[in-house]
Amino acid sequence: MDSFELLLTGLGNALSLYNFGVLVIGMMVGTVAGALPGISFVNAMAMALPFTYMMHPTMAMTFLGGIYVGGVFGGSISSILINIPGTPASLPACWDGYPMTKKGLSKRALRIALTSSAIGGFASALLLTFGAPPFARFALTFDQPEFFAATVLGLVSVIAIAKDAPVITMVSLFLGMLVATVGVDPMYGMARFTFGVAEAQSGINFTVVMIGLFAIGEVVDLMCSKMNLNPKTDSTAGQGFKLSEFPMIQWAVARATALGCVIGTIPGAGATVAAVIAYGIEKQASKRGKQFGTGVEEGLAAPEAAKNATTGAAMIPLLTLGIPGSAATAIMLAALMLHGIAPGPLLFTSDTTMVYTIFASMLLANLLMVAAALMVARGFSTLMRTPTAVLGAFIIVLSILGAYSVRNNFFDVWVCLGCGVAGYIMKRTGFPSAPLVLGVILGPLAERYFLTSLANYDNNVFIFVERPISGTILFLATIFCLWALWPMLRGAWPAKASGLADPDSAAPHKPGSARG
Fold first, then answer.
1. Cβ-count burial of 254 within 10 angstroms (0-12 exposed, 13-18 middle, 19+ buried)?
2. How many CA atoms are closer than 13 Å to the CA of 493, on its beta-carbon side?
3. Could you tell me the residue ranges of all domains in the chain?
4. What is the pLDDT of residues 233-274, one digit of tens each?
């Protein structure tokens, strides 16, 4: 069967009563969660993860995919209406979206954002549908060393993207990898870091860690910040946006969609990076670039198209290599692993029906996003009047139930609460939590691929650079790492050189002396 026939089969499965029903529910949940500042769709996905265990794997991925697509756009609703981004990727929507709202053009701003997001997301889903299978066929040539190298690239990409704080990102990543070592060694069966706690021998479950960090930690921070979420404007006010006006933003949408599709395939980049870069590029490319920040349509359309264009593209490395490109796709990887499914190139031959049903669901989700977003935007004012304490208590109770249901033991509940406290502290101190989660998930994979590579190739540690593909991937990982650390190293070298040239500069500063 060719790709079109497989896609039609997947579309038929996606339109079945149960799959389509959970897709619609997921879209609504994601859009609402994304629109609520401090809640976010990632929290919703983390809370929903344990409950997907009772679903069929295809239905679980459809449900989480709906939350993902709806949530990426949902954050822009609060950005445009109340100048509070529902998700980090929606921050650029504040820069030109909220000024339009202040001008009485909230309805126009929402429709521009929705149109751009739908186009970017649909194009990205098409890329996933027709780009993932050829890449999976290429990935069939991979052996354990290549999978280890690809996992290392995923870990290093997290550091490379966070060039503004590479050291703290590395600390968070390594901390996650350290947490993942708790339990029994996969090769020798020896207990590690259990400290005599019998329950810890089964390991720290990544699902529990994600629920604690993303759901409980974020909600506690929201309640402590006492943020006023009540919008002061009507989401239906002002002039709308007609289809005949689309040519004014068409090139901004096209550029941003292409950029988002490329960035989405890079593990660790994600929607936030795509949105910010797209805004900067469009500011340079637009004839009205100097007016950006005052309510320019292109300034709103570009980041919206770019961030939604990462949704389908980010699933390409997830499904073909088993490498999540973001926190959201990490949760989707966790859902597959909960069902005993290992994502990778073999998935495209062993369960083609499920793969193409996921593709069709992503295409449908981007079409349904229009209706879901309009409904949420209309009821946004009523939704935001719900007391923060009530929303927070509801989410925490659901999180604890979800943590317990993973393995039906209270040890996971205590771990979840501990991660919630840690997540709150990390949020308050600016310590990134996403690298920690990716470390918890990718760390065991890297360890497993490394040990099996050595076992299969007579303990030859040079096998990773002797094989062309794995060597090339590790070379790219090294370049990414040096690229991330170069600004810090370049800044440290002149300081060291000047200290050697001028010994007096190294002398301690005396109280009362003047500074230059």
1. middle
2. 6
3. 3-490
4. 544 444 667 777 888 888 999 999 998 888 787 765 567 778
Q: Check: CB of residue 339 under 8 Å from CB of residue 60.
A: yes
User: Rg (Cα) of the chain, in Å, rounded?
Assistant: 24
Q: Report residues of the chain scoring pLDDT below 50.
A: 234-238, 496-498, 500-516
Sign of CA dihedral 125, 126, 128, 133: positive
- Non-local CB neighbours of 125 within 8 Å, separated by 6+ positions: 311, 312, 359, 362, 363, 365, 366
Q: Tell me what pLDDT residue 326 has.
A: 72
Q: Per residue in 371-410, is it b (16+ CB within 10 Å) or e — as a string?
A: ebbbebbeebbebbeeebeebbeebbebbbebbbebeeee
Residue owning tokens 């062993």: 350
Q: Round to whole Å and give the CA distance between 20 and 291.
A: 43
**Residues 77-100: pLDDT tens digits?**
878 877 767 676 777 888 888 888
Say if CB 269 and CB 276 are below 8 A apart: no
Query: Concatenated DSSP letters for 186-222?
Result: TTT--EES-TT-GGGGG---HHHHHIIIIIIHHHHHH
What the block records as the tokens of 422 is 């840690």
Taking 3-state DSSP, the helix, strand and coil percentages for the chain, each rounded to the nearest 5, stand at 75, 0, 20
Indicate the DSSP class of residue 515.
P
Rounded Cα–Cα distance for residues 291 and 283 (Å) = 9
- Looking up tokens 């929705």 gives 114
Quickly count: other Cβ atoms within 10 Å of residue 501's Cβ.
8
